[in-house]
Design goal:
This is Aldose epimerase family protein. The protein is mainly beta. The chain has 6 helices and 29 strands. A hairpin with a 4-residue loop joins strand 3 and strand 4. The longest helix has 10 residues. About 45% of the residues are buried. The protein binds alpha-D-quinovopyranose. The site of alpha-D-quinovopyranose has 5 residues, from loops.
């Protein structure tokens, strides 16, 4: 395996890893994945010319590291250790994805480590309270590793100067179709597929999930059958949001997504996975925007969005001062 760096305009670096059958590209802008190809088949959404102004303008966070808090915080406010924090409202009344100065919009320092059978890129940055108005500063490493078995591993290592919230994730969109048709033909599968319904402001209020395995009497469900469901609660959610934008509980952090050609697995130590099926791309008026609803799907492995306002001091996203944070998510692609 070899890695090479291409310096683009706008201070963007592309780190290109070639594993013959598969090729993957990362960038220092947002510590993001820019491309992942199996032979000539692009399995993630990204810009064909890779990381030009497309990524600065793209409001959908393609492939970006998102944080310090992935997802929404209702009314852009929360209480922690008896103190109330007010955050920027960058999504209606809510704070979304760490606010306007989130991790997706910053340049990371990085180091490339060529190891036996794998290449590791260690991205580093510091999130300061004055950047995003969450308590404390966070020293963060985002480690992307790609190995000879076509496995992409993301690790987050962080320490905070004060007790704070930390809920990082990667906002990659997958599309396994060779012709890049919409992802309605993909199947999701896990031994648990529990989908939390959203209120109209995209916030979970009802912590009783819909058990898709019960509804479909199967642990393998086609996205099309969710989008077109007649099951009342699912039908109402699809009418409201145009597709999935929902947190899931899955079994032991493991699920697969497949079409007739590829099998993608995801394995994570984070408690939830948010699946977003890119429901309203037209909101981005740009020549770069070649996308239509359901052009891709995300697998945002993270804590439940808005967990601090749902679960208070039991929220999984609370990171104690000077206590090391570690999380790992692995994406594996295989041809059937
Ligand atoms: C929309 O509601 C969705 C989010 O879930 C997604 O992360 C964002 O677009 C990019 O706001």
């Amino acid at each position: 395996m070899i890695a090479k760096v291409e310096k683009q305009s706008n201070d963007i670096d592309l780190i290109k890893i070639d594993n013959e059958e598969t090729k993957i590209v990362f960038s220092n802008y947002g510590a993001r994945i820019v491309s992942w190809k199996f032979d000539d088949n692009l399995i993630v959404l990204g810009n064909v010319v890779e990381a030009d102004e497309f990524y600065f303008e793209n409001p959908f966070k393609f492939g970006a590291t998102v944080g310090r808090y992935g997802g929404r915080i209702a009314n852009a406010t929360f209480e922690l250790d008896g103190k109330t924090y007010e955050l920027p409202k960058n999504d209606g009344e809510n704070n979304l994805h760490g606010g306007p100065n989130g991790l997706d919009d910053r340049f990371f320092d990085y180091e490339i480590k060529e190891q036996v059978g794998q290449i590791q890129i260690v991205f580093k940055t510091q999130i300061k309270n004055k950047d995003d108005y969450f308590p404390g500063d966070i020293q963060l490493e985002v480690i992307h590793t790609y190995d000879v078995n076509h496995r992409w591993t993301i690790e987050y290592k962080a320490t905070a100067s004060e007790t704070t919230l930390f809920n990082p994730m990667n906002h990659v969109y997958f599309n396994l179709n060779r012709d890049n048709k919409v992802v309605d033909n993909h199947f999701i599968s896990s031994e648990a597929l529990k989908m939390y319904p959203l209120a109209e402001n995209n916030i979970v209020t009802d912590t009783t999930p819909i058990d898709l395995i019960n509804v479909y009497e199967s642990d393998k469900v086609q996205l099309k059958d969710i989008f077109e469901s007649d099951y009342p609660e699912i039908k109402q959610q699809m009418a409201q949001f145009g597709g999935l934008d929902h947190p899931f509980d899955i079994h032991n952090g493991y699920m697969t997504i497949e079409n007739d050609h590829f099998m993608l697995s995801v394995e994570t130590d984070m408690p939830n996975v948010v699946m977003f099926t890119f429901n309203h791309p037209k909101s981005w008026e740009s020549d770069f925007n070649i996308y239509k609803p359901h052009s891709g799907f995300t697998l945002e492995t993270q804590c439940m969005p808005n967990d601090i306002n749902l679960y208070g001091d039991q929220a999984s996203s609370i990171l104690k001062a000077n206590s090391p944070f570690y999380s790992k998510t692995v994406f594996q692609i295989n041809e059937k």
